[in-house]
# Entry
Amino acid sequence: MNSTNILLAIGSALLLTACFKPIFSSLQSSMALTTQDPMYPIVALGVYRHVAASMDPLFLGTPFRMTAIMDTMQEPKSVRYNPQNMAVVLFNLHPRPKVFITGAAISRQMTHESIHVWNTYVQESKEKNTFVINLCDDPPPHGDWANHILRRLREHYGTKAMSGDV
# Structure
């Protein structure tokens, strides 16, 4: 590459930087605002993925977000729930999960096994302010799982968390 080409390359880079700097600055400032807001990532385990996914609207206007759903019917079978897969999910999510919800339809054995994996994750990751909602051993009254989950989150994290003002 000769000196003319090098100067052209430098000039092009400076021009691109000048053109896109306002866009990058705007993007960085909007990202800074959203990353400062507290968020409580949720991992759920159930028989069917779509049941846990249907909870997304419950968390609108709150700092809670469904970040991973494990189930027992997912294809391919290699990605279905098992203790090893759950550990991989928990330790690799960013931000780190704070809430674990076990579905009402999974077996007690699987519930206790998954809670053991969760507790190991909490201990080894040193994650603070975590919470488990066990719908298998503590089923919602009259099958009203949506209000039950919101009530339990409110009890643990306080009413400010439910309005997004944590």
User: Anything to note?
Assistant: The mean pLDDT is 81. The beta strands are 40-46, 64-71, 99-102, 131-134.
